[in-house]
């Protein structure tokens, strides 16, 4: 069976060019679809389950990193192994630097045939290795875990927080949060000690204590940089919880993890990328 | 400047102090030589008196100066403290130096009665004059050094601002993506590649040199916008539509070069690029009561959703500043939600710049 790929690139000419270059460097590769934005990239990837993803970083709607994070969560690992991920970027030195230390590949635009051939070679080797481990489920699990760790690291590093990168020394941990009450115009000073979890919604972050809900407008990335990583754990792309408030971790029939928090009734979803935090000791 | 305190006896301060000490020693040697020659005195004794007085005054004043002001930018005590310090230095140097000199020459300690009136006066006058002169000399030296460092700083800031401006105008992401597109077109569609290269050429020339000219006709400004928008529409394909509307009678109106560029860039970067289906940008110029009104409207994600980043803020700030420089309080810019979603930026200024 021929290897399959999906290209996510918002500039039509560049998508076309990458497809042409790939056709030359890897004639067997079958490009199943080309998506012009992050959301349709996720949709198409889940529908077609390709083996290789070429993701542009800057895309409208959901960017390449966000799309990869969402895919990590929703990819049906029982049906197909996690795809090989290659980022394509024109100029994004931070992201590029982050990738340099990781096993995840990236290609700079304009794509040079020389460079692309190296990527293709690496992808071919990775796919071949995937075929070899298939029979043994334990080895497959291990391979999945390895892939997830790679994705986790590269996404965290590119987002500018966590991972192996040293935390920004200049930001002192937050003590109080100036948040507005949901639907009100009053600003409340909420002590960080009362916060049980944060959840990013559209343009806001919901701040939840045992009794109340508040809203702040700081991007999650910025907020994370100001939280003590020992106390607050990111468990999902959009959720950061107080680790000491976690009461139990459940796994549902589909294999998805959920948290019960002391003091909150709702179930908190755990992204597959952060599942390693809750493996039984 | 920074308000945090610096260490008082940091290396550069101590170096400066030792340099002063060395100059003081040289100066004292000159005084001793002059005195020994004019008064036919003992060379050794004059040297000891002179050096003792000079070095004690120097130590007192320089250490005192650093203790009081060493942690600040200007290393000299403010106001009366400076005078007091010099007076203290003179007194301590005079008494201490004479005591050492007297001990050296085995004379009764500080027995000024033994001196003739004139000699005492001479010593005091010499000490006073020398100390004041040296302090003034060092003070001026330090001051000019401080001025020079301030000037350097100002120049560095100006260069940084220019670099930042250039970086916003020549955003690397835009440049590399354009080049990547160009690379595709060269093989796929050579005539279109040539057209795109010409646009890029115009755009780069204008961006790199435009900020130096004072004004150019509005028609030229619109042509540059067309270059930029055309480049962007090659990249974005159907996701970008645009119209430029410039009435003939306004073509010659002088405007500052690249005044509108940041507005259009913001519309694309923060309005249309984040939007999956893209949208339209319309730039219109019209005339109203002797004023030129230029509107840049887009159908992007709108002010609220657009994450106003530092670069967009910098672009807008730049437009405001340039309006203020050329038109004073007659130049206005407003940013509002567009009638059909998106953002509407309106510039309004007199048809003729103020003389």
Number of strands of chain A: 15
- The CATH architecture term of the largest domain in chain A is 3-Layer(aba) Sandwich
Residue share in β-strands of chain B? 5-15%
**Pair with the most extensive interface?**
A-B, 22 and 26 residues
- Count of separate structural domains of chain A: 2
Q: How many structural domains are formed by the residues of chain B?
A: 2
Shape of chain A: globular
Strand content of chain A: 25-35%
Largest sheet of chain A: 7 strands, antiparallel
Looking at CATH, the homologous superfamily of the largest domain in chain B is: Histidine kinase-like ATPase, C-terminal domain
Structural class of chain B: alpha+beta
Element-by-element helix/strand order of chain A: EHEHEHEHEHHEEEEEHEEEEE
CATH class of the largest domain in chain A: Alpha Beta
Q: Could you report the average pLDDT of chain B, rounded to the nearest whole number?
A: 83
- Helix/strand-derived category of chain A reads alpha/beta
Text of the CATH class of the largest domain in chain B: Alpha Beta
Order of helices and strands of chain B: HHHHHHEHEEHEEHHEE
Question: What's the pLDDT, averaged over the residues of chain A?
Answer: 83
The whole-angstrom Rg of chain A is 20 Å
Structural features, described:
The complex is a heterodimer of chains A (281) and B (355). Chain A has helices spanning 12-25, 38-48, 64-74, 93-100, 113-133, 137-158, 220-225; strands at residues 4-8, 30-35, 52-56, 84-89, 105-108, 176-181, 187-191, 195-201, 204-209, 213-216, 232-236, 239-242, 246-251, 257-261, 264-270. Chain A has 281 residues and is of the alpha/beta class. Chain A has two domains: 4-158, Response regulator (Rossmann fold, 3-Layer(aba) Sandwich); 176-278, LytTr DNA-binding domain (OB fold (Dihydrolipoamide Acetyltransferase, E2P), Beta Barrel). Residues 161-170 of chain A have low confidence and may be disordered. With 355 residues, chain B is of the alpha+beta class. In chain B, strands 2-4-5-7-6 form a five-stranded mixed beta sheet, covered by helices on one side. In chain B, strands 1-3 form a two-stranded antiparallel sheet. In chain B, a hairpin with a 5-residue loop joins β6 and β7 (343-350). In chain B, α8 runs antiparallel to α10 (310-327). The longest helix of chain B is centred in the middle third of the chain and has 53 residues, at 117-169. Chains A and B meet through α1 of A and α5 and α7 of B.
């Amino acid at each position: 069976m021929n290897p399959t790929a999906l290209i996510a690139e918002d500039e039509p000419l560049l998508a076309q060019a990458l497809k042409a270059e790939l056709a030359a460097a890897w004639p067997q590769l079958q490009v199943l679809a080309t998506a012009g934005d992050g959301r349709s990239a996720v949709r198409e990837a889940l529908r077609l389950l390709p083996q290789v993803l070429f993701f542009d970083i800057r895309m409208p709607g959901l960017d390449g990193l966000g799309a990869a994070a969402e895919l990590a969560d929703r990819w049906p690992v029982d049906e197909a192994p996690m795809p090989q991920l290659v980022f394509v970027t024109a100029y994004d030195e931070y992201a590029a630097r982050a990738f340099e230390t990781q096993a995840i590949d990236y290609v700079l635009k304009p794509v040079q045939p020389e460079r692309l051939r190296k990527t293709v070679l690496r992808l071919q080797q990775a796919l071949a290795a995937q075929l070899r481990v298939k029979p043994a489920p334990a080895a497959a699990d291990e391979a999945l875990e390895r892939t997830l760790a790679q994705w986790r690291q590269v996404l965290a590093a590119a987002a500018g927080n966590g991972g192996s990168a040293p935390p920004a020394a200049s930001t002192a941990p937050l003590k109080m949060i100036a948040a507005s009450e949901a639907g009100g115009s009053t600003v409340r000073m909420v002590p960080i000690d009362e916060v049980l979890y944060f959840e990013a919604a559209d343009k806001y972050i919901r701040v939840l204590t045992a009794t109340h809900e508040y809203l702040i407008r700081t991007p999650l990335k910025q907020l994370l940089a100001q939280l003590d990583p020992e106390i607050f754990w990111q468990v999902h792309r959009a959720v950061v919880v107080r680790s000491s408030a976690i009461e139990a971790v459940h796994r549902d029939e589909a294999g998805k993890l959920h948290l019960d928090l002391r003091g909150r009734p709702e179930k908190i979803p755990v992204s597959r990328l952060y599942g390693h935090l809750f493996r039984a000791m | 400047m920074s308000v945090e305190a610096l260490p008082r006896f940091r290396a550069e301060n101590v170096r400066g102090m030792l340099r002063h000490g060395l100059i003081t020693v040289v100066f004292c040697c000159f005084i001793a030589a002059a005195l020994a020659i004019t008064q036919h005195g003992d060379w050794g004794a004059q040297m000891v008196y002179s050096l003792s007085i000079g070095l004690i005054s120097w130590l007192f004043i320089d250490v005192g100066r650093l203790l009081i002001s060493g942690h600040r930018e200007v290393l000299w005590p403010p106001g009366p403290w400076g005078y007091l310090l010099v007076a203290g230095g003179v007194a301590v140097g005079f008494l201490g130096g004479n005591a050492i000199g007297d001990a050296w020459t085995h004379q009764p300690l500080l027995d000024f009665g033994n001196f003739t009136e004139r000699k005492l006066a001479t010593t005091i006058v010499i000490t006073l004059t020398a100390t004041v002169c040296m302090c003034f000399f060092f003070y001026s030296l330090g001051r000019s050094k401080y001025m020079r460092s301030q000037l350097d700083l100002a120049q560095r800031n100006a260069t940084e601002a220019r670099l930042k401006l250039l970086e916003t105008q020549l955003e690397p992401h835009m440049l590399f993506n354009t080049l990547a597109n160009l690379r595709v077109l060269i093989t796929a569609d050579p005539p279109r590649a040539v057209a795109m290269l010409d646009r890029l050429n115009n755009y780069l020339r204008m961006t790199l040199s435009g900020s130096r000219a004072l004004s150019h006709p509005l028609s030229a400004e619109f042509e540059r916008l067309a270059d930029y928008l055309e480049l962007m529409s090659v990249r974005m394909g159907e996701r970008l539509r645009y119209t430029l509307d410039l009435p003939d009678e306004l073509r010659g109106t002088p405007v500052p070069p690249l005044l509108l560029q940041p507005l259009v860039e913001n519309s694309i970067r923060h309005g249309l690029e984040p939007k999956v289906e893209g949208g339209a940008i319309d730039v219109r110029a019209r005339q109203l009561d002797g004023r030129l009104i230029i509107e840049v409207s887009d159908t992007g994600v709108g002010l609220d959703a657009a994450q106003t980043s530092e670069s967009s803020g910098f672009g807008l700030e730049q437009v405001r500043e340039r309006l203020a420089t050329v038109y004073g309080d007659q130049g206005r810019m407003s940013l509002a939600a567009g009638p059909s979603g998106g953002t509407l930026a309106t510039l309004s200024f007199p048809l003729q710049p103020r003389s």
